[in-house]
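OP here, attaching both records as promised.
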Amino acid sequence: MFSIAGLLALIVTIYLRPHSFIEAIRNAPLYEAFSGLAVVGVLLDVRLRITRLQRTPQVRWVVALVLWSILTLLIRAPRALGGALSSMITPLSVFAVIVEGVQSFTGLHLLTGTLVGSISIVCLLMIHQGLSPFGCLVVKDVSPHGSLFAVPDGRPCVRRVDCEVQPDVEYVCERVGLLGISSVAHGRVRYPGLLLDPNKLALGVGMAVPLFVALWELRRTLSRTILLALFLVVAVACVYFTRSRSGIMVLAATLGIYVWRWYGWRGLVAAVGLFAPMVIFVLASRPDAAASSTERHEILAMGMQMFASSPLVGVGFGQFVAHYYMTAHNSYLLVLSELGLPGAFLWSGVVYVTFKMVLSGVRRYRNREEGAPAATWSLALVTAMGGLMIGSLFLSMSYDVLFWLQLGLCGAFYLCTTGHDPAWRVRMEGRDFGLLALINGALIAGLTWTTRGVAISGGPR
């Protein structure tokens, strides 16, 4: 398949961001180039009848969500339409080229293998960063979301005050690892680009675990067993160095499903015992944990105020940070406050139908010998989706590349499987719409109850 080369290069670019470290390609439009290469590959595959353009059950929901997002901007913030549309292009194009470009299990193996390989390299770099000494960095820039771009100046430090030698220069004291990548919040590891937020880095690692397990289950060789064991070690270490509470939850959930499957309840209890010290150490090393929880409650309260002020169309796609100084840190709250009730229903519908696809695959193929590869992939993808939704309760993932990449993998799996089993089809039925409405009602009720009496110190803009 001609699309695979572009897709593999795109995955490496998304996760490893080589243009962040190689000066010769620093300003090269790699995302655009490799996305275009993947699109050209898809068109060639279709033209040569290697594959054909197909539609997953997600597509109608995605199209409706995009159209509603645009409508909310036309109503609430028409001047922001151009910037908002450009922010949609990358995640949606990643979703589309994965769905249409990967229509065989061989392609799915190559894509996921490249993904977990890239995550493995990131984890190794993060372990080195987490074990590196603290050093002084000069702050060069601060993004609108608070991310720092800082350059090491070569001096060791213990606290930020140790670095402050010039009054007109802003310094930070952080761990400096390979390639000049530095930590944040006094020691929490991070990686440039998609994984710059330590919480998102931990989420990405946790979601990669079931994909690596699937590759191992499909071919249980000694070399793959060793690689899987090594990956699990570096994954746990990497998540630990992020000091991310939500990341530990995601990793524990994705690992826990397989531990329970392999070893039953006794193995699960043993795994909980192993993770408990890690949780304790992380909580002990996060003196800001209580303040962070209070801050997130304030953000939730602000988001619910936005929703209450405009329950039909919200404040407009991408406009949460135009009304408050921080992002929502909760994906469902973000779509509810920005897109109103219809938008939240459509976004949750995309998630629901994706879950239904992979769960249906688990039920259909788990006891069929000829469907073993489909059963393996469906379990891995539903586990990764579960981890993604846990992380989405604490992160703004609604239009994030990591979120839509995972949806694309599920869509690709569906098309791979229906290519071998045309009789399998997943459709939304009346009871699904009723259940989706109940889920949305429960989430709104939960957010309302959680934010009762919460005072907002930052205030709206």
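Record two, same layout:
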Amino acid sequence: MDHLPINKRSERILYLLALIKIIVPYFLQNSYYEPHRDEFLYLAEGHHLAWGFMEVPPMLSLFAWLTHLLGDGMFWIKLWPSLFGAATFIVAGRILLSLGGKTFGLVLLVLPFIFGAYLRVFFLFQPNAPEIFFWTMIVYSITSYIQTQKRKWLYVLGLSVGLGMMSKYSVAFFTASIAIALLLTGNRRIFANRHFWYGSLLGLLIFLPNLLWQYFQHFPVFHHMKELQQTQLQYISPVDFLVGQLLMNATCAFIWIGGLLFVLFSPQSKKYRFVGLAYLFVLALLIIGHGKPYYALGAYPALFAFGAYRLEQVTSTKRRSLRYAFVLIPVIMGLLIAPILLPVLKPEKLARLYEKMNTKSTGALKWEDLRNHPLPQDFADMLGWEEMAKKMSRAY
């Protein structure tokens, strides 16, 4: 599987599907809901630009600053994560097309972005959106280098790691996992290339301002992580974490599992084995650290790309009827779970719908207090802010 030129028709389809990915959640989320509580935190950081904050690097604060500049409307708040979602799909799509994937592969690839956990993740103004994008860029830069041997991709790799670290510190876990995976495969030759180290230096220089900020502030991120471990992460068991991996993308699990098996065991994809190994190492690190299931979301777009390519390949001449099932299953399941992914109805109607669907049995209504509530915690955290602000204003 060498790097294949991307034809114009496939590229047009790729960008059309990316545009659909941006538009869909705007129509799904009910306008009754306000920004999420975490979104208010990151928007507030846009008023206090700095090289770092206690819990996150500074990248998202720049987009918060732009949002304030543009008027703080919901459209702008949601645009940035939507754009990162579309960009992630485009990068994953280019991985697929570079392998020889075509239209059906792109259709399969877009399904998890519309009918899975990414529908919510790429509509919340949180660091997860750029983080997932840069995880995917790291894989894309390495696969492109393997395919072309062009040194520019080693600089793109360094750029992706550096900017990724400026978006969320968990990029370090993925970078470490990628490095270990490369060392354990024939791709270890990359470490003998001086341009790899020049690219690594570029990444370090990009991240250096935040690293220095953390140093001079006595590394507040460690205090934040300790507090998070004591209040939330210690309650997450390895079983809960692994079950979460299946539930997050349950509608399209067969695609990423197919991609994982393909990169790990197929002789055809031997030079991409590092992708599967890095995924396993990420899971191991997060299980040891009691990470939340969504912490691993950045590892999946590349697996979806390889899985979509493989499923397109095995149904290209035989078993073509399976293609209908490959599309219909995620669409039908995705429509059923859409009210869990985004608040599509007002709270009272949504709560009644959850009762009819017996949603509490899925765990989606369980809050951090480990008890079930009428709405998912994320949706409840999008309510009451305007009312609260008015009451505070009157009291003041």
